[in-house]
Structure formats: structure tokens, C-alpha cells
Protein: Dual-specificity RNA methyltransferase RlmN
Organism: Hirschia litorea
Amino acid sequence: MSTELDLSRRPAKPAATGPVNLSGLSLVKIREQMEALGIDAKKAKMRAKQVSHWMHNFGVTNFDDMTNIAKDMRAKLEQNHVIERPEIVEHKVSVDGTQKWLSRFGPAIEAESVFIPDVARSGALCVSSQVGCTLSCTFCHTGTQKMVRNLTAQEIVAQVLVARDALSEWPTPSENRKLTNIVFMGMGEPLYNLDNVVEAIDTISDCEGISIGRRRITVSTAGVAPKIPELGARTNAMLAISLHATNDDLRDEIVPINKKYNLECLFDAIRAYPDLGNSKRVTFEYVMLKDVNDSLAEAVDLVKLMKGLPAKINLIPFNPWPGSPYECSEWDKIETFAEVLNRAGLSAPIRTPRGRDIFAACGQLRSESVKEKASDRLKARLADTTPAAE
Ligand code: SAH
């Protein structure tokens, strides 16, 4: 027997129509907003460029600062639009200068971003593409958080704007920047949110806006093989692969997406990445897990896997998190592992962990956001429409 709930008599709620936030929107989307104001197509394109330039090159958050736009036009814009950053729930600064932000994009929609100042004159911002993750890699803290939802392109770009605000990097400097690179290595799997990642990269790399070139944007994937060549074709970005194991048995266990796309399938996809060559190498990330993947035999296998590929390997000492089931390999073991790779002519730097004290290092990111269950949403809706007992 089954019971069905009749929700058809629910009064239709008018769609919420608040002002639209323009901050972080793509040129195409800003233009659509201009057209919705009744501006004709050609002028709308020009206006969109002006507004985007003010927001993403000058960092303004006020329409009145857009001095080359007529006053009445500014007033019109202000009536229907805002320029807002996400709420910053938490901002932490590590002893090593690494900074971490927890941004709130909506009720229970929170994601982290990390700025890693480098030793050289460069700094990378690690952005999240999803709240939570579906992949459950066994060594990754984000993997213990259930998937909540994809971030929109605007929410991804907002993470860059927040960092630029904190670094006081407005207008976009043409040289001596603190923020020079973007890495999609925060929470989530970017290739499971490819459309939004592509749109965000278009906005981040727009040379009249944030202007971080595509060669300075790296997208990391755990191995969503069919989407890898598409990522290259649509973004021209740099590719990073979270490899972590050299045989299918171990990779099936620690990076479970390998059961769907095994090493052979993954490497076929990597070889199909457009424009690979000496100036465009694939980065392989390899987390060093004590007695799991750090033997000399595995270093030799790794060399074999890299054969014929323009590649570099980042050896990442495992970063622990509460309840994590692994330990980091001994330091001399990591060094011996690196030596095998170096002797084979491979670049294999050992990454110094950054921001461990504020839980900002690779794989330590996680937020408390949980997805509201459909049954809870239904309960809330019923409570909304059921007259209260007298
Ligand atoms: N889902 C994508 C994007 C996340 S990138 C991907 O897997 O590539 C985050 C990087 O940190 C990945 O290489 C991931 O494997 C690595 N990582 C995860 N947990 C880690 C940990 N505890 N210590 C060190 N690196 C970790």
C-alpha cells in the first residue's frame, strides 16, 4: 500500500525577485541584465563591458563610483542590482602567511578558499568548485563531507574577489601582483561542475577584468576521464591530476573514481589534452602516505607511467585531519622517492605543507554545510501551508 501526498492545493508562491547581484557575473550574463533593463543589444554589450571593468578591474562595489556611466543610468542600475561579496563567516591567517576564508553563499552553503603566498614573487589562490564532494578519496577531509551542491560560476569568481579585497589588489595590478595564480584545488571535483568552471575561468581570465591568464589557472581532477580533453578545449587551462597510486588495485581503494575510470582510461584522456608540450606540462599530485604508496617500487612504476608525457610531479606530504586513517611518510622516504624520479629526469618537488595550523593545507578543507534532505524540505513546505491549530 502506498500513500500519496497531494500538494496540488499549495498556494503558488511568487518567485523571489530581489535585486540581482552583478559581482562576479560573466560578461554575457551582465549583458543579459542590461538588456532586461530595456537597453538595446549593441549598447547593452558596451554597458556590460563598462560595468564589468569597474567591478572586476577596479573592484568597485558602488554604482556611484562608475564615473563614466551617466547618473540616470547609474540610478537605473541601482534600482535593480547590487554589487555584493559573499558573507565571510571566518577568515584565518596562518603563521606562514597562508590565509583561509570560509564564504557563505546562502543558508548552509559554505565553502573555503585558501591564499598561499609563495617564496618567489607569486601567490596562488586555491578555490572551491563544490560544497562537499561526491568522490570520497580516503585521505581527503573534504571527502568526508557529503555533496551539498555545485557552486555557480559567480560564486567561484567571488572567491577571487574576496581574496583581492583582502590583499588590497585593486585596481588589478599589471605587475608585482600578490595574487598571480588560481588553482582549482579546493573543495569539490571541478570536472563534475565543468560548465560553471568554464564560465568562471572566462571571467577570471578576462584581460579587462581580473586578468589572470589561462596559463596561470590550473584545474585539478581526481580523474573524470571523459571530461579531461573537453576541459582543455573549453578553457586552455593547465591540467593537474590527483594520481596518488601507480596501480589500479591501490587506486581503486584510495581514489575510488578509479573503479569507473581506471589508469589506462585516465592516461588515454590525459594524452588527448590539447597542446601538451614542454611549455604546457601536466602536473601529477602524489600524496605521500606512510607504508601505503611510498615504496621504491612505486617510485619506479611512477617513472614508467610518465613515459612520453610532458609532466611534473608534486609530492605532497600527507596533511592529517581529525580522524584521518593515514600517517605521512617519513621524510627520508619522501626524499628517496623524489630522488628516483629526479634521476629519471622528472621534476618532482616535495611540496612544503602550508597553512596546516589553520587547516588550510591540501585536503584539509571541509565546511559544516549539509544538504537539506528532500523529506525535511517537504516538512517545511507543509508547515508553511498548513494552518496553525487554533
Ligand atoms: N577533486 C579534485 C580537486 C581537489 S584538489 C582533485 O582531486 O584533484 C586537492 C588536492 O589535495 C588533491 O590532489 C588531493 O588528492 C590532495 N589531498 C587531499 N587530501 C589530502 C591530504 N590529507 N594531504 C595532502 N593532500 C591531500
